[in-house]
Structures are given as structure tokens and as C-alpha cells.
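Q: Start with the shorter request: fold the first protein.
A: Done. Sequence, then structure:
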Amino acid sequence: MSTSVVDALRKLKLALTNWFSQAWRSFQKRMTGPMPVVLQPIRDLSDPRLDEAVQVLVAAFKENEVARAMIGGRERLRTMMHTAVVRATVVGGQLWIALDESDRVVGTASWYPPGSDFLDDDAQFNEGFAQFFAELQKVDPAVYDWWFTGLLPKYRESSKKYFSTPEDPEGGKFRKDNWNLVSFSVIPDLQRRGIGRQLLKVGEDKAKEQHKSCCLETSTDENLKMYERLGYRLLGMEHVDGPPGHPGYDQRILIKDP
């Protein structure tokens, strides 16, 4: 083989190596870097994307111990519970979704702006939670009782402990005067791609414009660290006993100041 042919092959090999290297780096960047999404609110209960939003929540909370406790480990109630959350948010708050390039729902955020609160009226409750609780009471009365004797009283207790003032001894006014994140999810295979950060900024930016705080809760140390990196501060942690047959958990209460 002539020297010129050998040199040409070497140059071709080098060019291909460089090309594959650049292509691989580009692929890795796409797979690990921020993912471009379009954020949109859902304002209509007939919007077909509501079902997609529910499935994102189902997938995101599949292994979450708190979500499992809330349904007593009964998987058939999982979709019903998350459906109740998104429909209540459309009625009383702001449900935001993240869409990928193919218009697939890949993330959700249930924000409640000042003047509103999660399930503070019958209209929200009757969009799914009435049916969920009726079914839960029928199939697992112990877990149903836990919601009303354990979980919800603990929520009110933490509001009183961390948000009460002489003018508002129960602490409910602070939550209703600020932005509250009730539910937040990204499909598992796209987490840590910046989608969640963009969904958080929807409420955070509006809160900043209005000189309001953002409030949220989380049950995991991993999420606590993430929120703290994003400027949230921990107000405190409250232990919530689980329903019969399920472990308890520690609920962390966080706030982001304007």
C-alpha cells in the first residue's frame, strides 16, 4: 500500500474519531443538560392533557412512601387520588404542565396563588376528592380515619406552629396570603434535566413580582437539599405517624422569601 493511501486512511480515521467524539459529547449534553420545554396552564377540566398530567404524577410518586400511605397501598386508588389533585387545582389554583418537543406532558406543578388554598371550597372537593374518600372509606376505613385524625390535623398543627401570628393564631392566613406549591412532578426518566426548575419558577417569579413568599413541603432529604439549593429555607420538620400498617414520615416545611 502506498504512503499516500496510508496517510489518507490515517486522516480519515482521525476525522471519524473526532466526529464520533463530538457527536457523543453532544448526545451526552442533550441527555444531561437542561431540557427545553414549553410551560402552559390548564384552565379547562375538559382538556385531554389532564389525563397525561395524572399519569406523570402516578409515575413520579410510584415509589413514594407518603403517597403509598395515603392510598393504604391500594394501587387502584392511586390514579383516583392524583386525578382529584389536578382537577381541584384547575378549579381553585393554577395547574401548570411542561410539554416536550412532541407536546407530551412531562411535568406538572399545582400552584395556589394568594387568595386561594387547596381544597378550601366544595367546588374543589367535589372534583374528585369526594369520590376518592368515599371509595377509601369503603375499602380501607382505617386509612380513611387516618386522613382526618392524623394527616390533616398534623397539617393544621404545623401551620399554627410555623405561620401563626397574634392576628392569625392558626397560621392559615399566611398560607393564603402567599404562593403555595401543593404538588410537583416530573416523569422519572427526565428528572434532573431542569424541567422541575422551570415549573418552580412559574410560581416563584409571580411571587417575586407580588413581593410574596413561596411555601412547600417535602418528605425526603434529597428534595430538601434540592430546594435549599434553589433558595428555600427550612422552617422545621414534623413527624407524621403513618396509618395502620404503614411507616410514618418526616414532613419538612420550607419557604422562599421574596
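Q: Next, the second protein, separately.
A: Sequence, then structure:
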Amino acid sequence: MQNSILRKNLAIRLIYYTSIKNFMITSKNLTRVATFADVIQRHSTTIFSKKSFNNNFENQFSH
């Protein structure tokens, strides 16, 4: 009886530990993705603004 309770307790601890570990990894990756998206959004206004795109387009094909 005591042995099975102990085994169940260990199993629950293991599940709890692995789920927390997975959650930490996931949240770290989500933070990375969010930072990347933030950088893209910050720079997209300069990269993809119509004026600069049109200027680059004209400069490339005006020669």
C-alpha cells in the first residue's frame, strides 16, 4: 500500500516537473517570437514605406 502511494506521488511530481519545464521553454520561445515580430514591425515602416520603395524602383530602372 505504502509503495503504490509513493510511486503515484513520484509520477505526479514527474508530470508536474516536465509540464513546468515545457512551459518555461514555450514561454521563452514565445518571448523570442514576440521580440522578433516587434523588431519587424518597428522596421517595416522604414523598409516597406511606399516612398522609399518607389524611389528604389525608379533608381534601379532609370539608368
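Q: Describe the second briefly.
A: The chain has two helices and no strands. Residues 1-28 form one domain.
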